[in-house]
Amino acid sequence: MATVFQMPGRPFWFYQITGADGTRQPRISTKTTNKTKAKKMAADAEAKERERALKGNTKGKFFARIVENAARLAEDGKLSADKAEEMIRELRQLANPEFKETRLAEYWRDWIAHRARHLSPSTIANSRDAFKKWAAVAPAMMQLPVTAVEIKHVRDGVAAMQTGDSAIATSTASNYVAELRELLDNAIEERLMNHNPARSKSIRRTRKFTATKNKEKVGPFTPDEVRNLLEFASDEWKGMILFGYFSGLRMMDIARLNEINLDGEDLVQTSGKTETQTRTPLHMQLRGWLQGRKGDFFPNIRVMANSNVSTAFSNLMKKAGVPREATLPGGDRVKRSFHSLRHTFTSVLANAGIPAEVRMKLTGQKDSDVHSSYTHHDHATLKNAVIQIPSV
């Protein structure tokens, strides 16, 4: 492989290539201070050397030198996966002088375009969101050949996603890592690489230890703000908001609700996050929205990616004039999102004097310290709690 470098105290870039016999040739000055031009000169020189190797019938010798070098490194315990990948690229380029390595950004764009023919718009939108975020936090990685992407590139990108002013939630970062992982799995199927750096256990550890976004305080909405959201919401979003406000369920748990979750005037649901089942008496206003509905309550929202649902709600907040940030009594600054409806639910109950163990029973929260004290509340107690929530 051609390498481009500068010498101490010298303004010009130099390059060094592998010769037709498999040995490294002397360094050559490019007589230019432009690194991009130097790279092109090095690539052109190496391409000419490969052509000479083929014309001179030295291709077999070149192959042998690479394989011998690999064997020697393996015997010495120095043949790393990255070095093996580099040698494979050399063999590919020798076998096919027209071989062109695809950069990760280009490969990702082509992959999205191909999948757009048979996948839902929301899935493709999620892929595009992931692409944009990776391009923002790891621009150098995105310009690497697909075969040159390493664990450290992915790890650094994940850390960058979760720190600084533009940090995103750990769940969103996990979603974007999953997109990259699927992309590189596809590259393996196409024999562009033999291992997936996005599947490393160290990536999961990075998500855990750099997670700062989830530590931000989340605040509730006021009843007036909920009314503003309802005024500007579509029918499905009105239902989502009412469920959030009157049941405290999580966003995607609500999106998946169906008529099978109704038992008389109760809502029975199992959390996708904690696998905890809750039975919540339905508030009168919520029963009004549900009247006559069959099948999936939110057929359009339930097929959207989580990040796209969150984005749609953020856009609704802007339209309704509900700010993303607020200051609580005492001066605490808080962020608001759909999850704030869950905080609103518990806050309204707390302000109405509903005991903490009853609130936890309704929201399905787990806490070993109080679990035994709230598992036997009867239905009347729960219903009395829900009717304390004012209509909006």
TrEMBL record:
Originating species: Luteolibacter yonseiensis
Keywords (A to Z) from UniProt: DNA integration, DNA recombination, DNA-binding
Domain annotation Tyr recombinase: ranges: 216-387
Example GO molecular function: DNA binding
Top-level taxonomic group: Bacteria
InterPro entries hit by this protein: DNA_brk_join_enz, Integrase-like_cat_sf, Integrase_catalytic, Integrase_recombinase_N, Phage_Integrase
Family, as annotated: Belongs to the 'phage' integrase family.
One of the GO biological process terms: DNA recombination
A Pfam family matched in the record: Phage_integrase
The protein, known as: Tyrosine-type recombinase/integrase
UniProt-listed Gene3D superfamilies: 1.10.150.130, Intergrase catalytic core
